[in-house]
Amino acid sequence: MDNKSWFKSAKFGMMIHWGLYSLLAGEWEGKRMPLIGEWIQSYFRIPNKQYHRLAEVFNPILYNPEEWVHLAKAAGMQYMVVTSKHHDGFALYRSKVDSFNIYDSTPFKRDVISELAEACYKHGLKLGLYYSQDLDWSDPNGGGYRDGHTNGGVMSWTNDWDFPDNDKKDYSICFENKIKPQVQELLTNFKDLCLIWFDTPKTISPEQSQELYDMVKHYQPNCLVNSRIGNGMGDYKSLGDNEIPDRFMSEGLFESPATLNDTWGYKSFDNNWKSPEKVLSIKKHLNERGINYLLNVGPDYLGRIPAPAQEILHMVGMAEA
After folding, report:
1. Which helix (H) or strand (E) is 258 found in, with range?
2. Are 229 and 245 in contact (CB under 8 A)?
3. Which residues contact 232 (CB under 8 A, 6 or more apart)?
4. What letter does residue 111 receive in the DSSP assignment?
5. How many Å apart are CA 40 and CA 33, to the nearest integer?
6. Most CB atoms within 10 A, among 59, 70, 129, 156?
């Protein structure tokens, strides 16, 4: 079965947002953020000098990739998509391009993506990788500088707290020096990826989107690319976050990325969990309309998927069995 046929029949997948933001768990200097936890650096405008120091204490000793894979399979999920690099620029694999990664910058000294890839292969779960190809707050030329602020004007797309002069930023420098070589690393380090999940195409040009797309197909011809690569490209359509349309999708491939509570990255105080019945209802609604349900969990700073999320997903799997 080719990847497009497989994707259309997959119906249910697990998304995982995990990184340094999981350490903060939605809080900074005595304040809690009201929005999605993985954006905490932008919300509180935390300087890289301070934020990057979180890597010195990021030591998720309870991370067990097989437990993550077993949970996904128990829920009836067919694939997993994990953040190899989010907007903060921190990579969950050992990157030779940039030392701001979990192996070189933390006491953990393990390649999370490599271990997860092995666990997925061992247990027959397909693996996809999320990669933020436009926004990168650790890079002075990271994208998003043409678009101001998001979420009610309270969070900047670009890092304009460390690098305030947006007029002098040039995304092509970041693209050439970090984005392209890291995407190449992902495609050559991790074989048989089912998809690359790009995000937030705010600045990327049509030529740059095409270059990334061609690179994916060069190294892994069967690897699908989502529409958030930008500029109308991609093998399948990523709907908006938590978008649950009523219309039926008859032509093409579609996926709705969604949260199990109200955040993607871990927030210790977000307990607004969807019930197993709600998850099953959304899944049924989406699947009947030809849309895959990519349901997110945010592991904590020790590498644990929160207990309520585990319980919900186990109950979903039992109901579907």
Report:
1. strand 254-259
2. no
3. none
4. -
5. 7
6. 129
φ and ψ of 32, to 5 deg: -105, 140
CA atoms of 291 and 243, how far apart (whole Å): 11
CA distance readout (Å), 32 to 61, 156, 268? 25, 18, 10
84 dihedral zone (left: phi>0; alpha: psi -120 to 50; beta)? alpha
Distance CA 81, CA 132 (A): 13
Question: Whole-structure pTM over 0.70, yes or no?
Answer: yes
> Using one digit for the tens of pLDDT, what is the confidence trace for 109-125?
999 999 999 999 999 99
Handedness of CA 85, 127, 172, 40 (dihedral sign): negative
CA–CA separation, 132 vs 294, rounded Å? 17
Tell me how many degrees the CA angle 204-34-87 measures, rounded to the nearest 5: 25
Phi, psi of 216 (to 5 degrees): -60, -50
Assess contact for 286 and 240: CB atoms under 8 A: no
Name the nearest CA neighbour of 211 among 243, 172, 249, 157: 172
pLDDT digits 0-9 by tens, 249-278: 878 999 999 999 999 999 999 999 999 999
Structure tokens that stand for 6 in this block: 């497989």
Q: What is the mean pLDDT of residues 181-209?
A: 98
**What's residue 3's pLDDT?**
77
> Are 231 and 205 spatial neighbours (Cβ–Cβ below 8 Å)?
yes
Distance CA 311, CA 313 (A): 6
Q: How far apart are CA 253 and CA 289, in angstroms?
A: 11
- The string of pLDDT tens digits covering residues 273-283 is 999 999 999 99
